[in-house]
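> forwarded from #structure-qc
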């Protein structure tokens, strides 16, 4: 019997891919830098089983009457963005979750128990700006900074 040979060809092992996960990872670094790591953030990738469980919690339609998207079955990846206060015994608050397929976009953004269909990277970044600069998010960060002093 012949020894098996490598059939993978040239395989890129450090790809430069932009998807919701990599964008959120970069935003987590920005938050830590802005607050001198008094407040940090991290992004946790969801395993396939957890994405499937989240899908079961939401109806299976495209857009509801309010224009909000429900999570379709085609999304196989997911991640959650957490805000952390290391000086408060690592107090952690989940801010948002994102579900996407191998192409990254379109994706579904879950924020405050509502799901929004996101068409592309520009739309995703616009929604992140809206969420990160919202009064509610800013207030949470200010409270955590004050409590951490």
């Amino acid at each position: 019997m012949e020894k098996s040979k490598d059939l993978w060809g040239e395989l890129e092992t450090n790809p430069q891919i932009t998807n919701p996960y990599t964008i959120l990872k970069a935003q987590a670094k920005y938050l830590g830098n802005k607050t001198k790591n008094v407040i940090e953030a991290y992004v946790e990738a969801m395993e396939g089983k957890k994405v499937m469980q989240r899908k079961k919690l939401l109806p299976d339609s495209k857009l509801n009457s309010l224009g909000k998207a429900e999570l379709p079955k085609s999304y196989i990846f997911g991640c959650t963005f957490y805000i952390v206060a290391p000086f408060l015994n690592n107090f952690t608050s989940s801010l948002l979750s994102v579900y996407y397929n191998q192409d990254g976009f379109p994706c579904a953004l879950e924020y405050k128990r509502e799901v929004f269909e996101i068409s592309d990277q520009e739309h995703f970044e616009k929604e992140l700006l809206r969420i990160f600069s919202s009064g509610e998010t800013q207030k949470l960060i200010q409270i955590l900074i004050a409590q951490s002093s």
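QC bot note: Residues 59-63 have pLDDT under 50 and may be disordered. Residues 20-34 form the longest helix (15 residues).
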